[in-house]
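Why do we bother with holo predictions? Because pocket geometry can differ from the apo form. Keep that in mind while you read this record for iron/sulfur cluster.
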Amino acid sequence: MTPAGLCATCRHANQVTSAKRSTFVRCGLSVTDPRFPKYPRLPVSRCEGFEPPTGAAAPQGHQT
Ligand code: SF4
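The structure, written out:
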């Protein structure tokens, strides 16, 4: 499992790297749903809000 657990592959996750180069995740669902912490404690192994990325089967390209 990656250090972030489920968050590493969740579409709601926004990865943030601090000035000290530690990486954490800001959960996008926390904005609309108070059940989810803004900064979940990693690794997350179970989460009701987890959703795979949209177009998970498609290659990740740059969007302009
Ligand atoms: S919904 Fe769950 S798995 Fe997804 S980013 Fe938030 S805490 Fe992580």
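The first strand starts at residue 13 and ends at 17.
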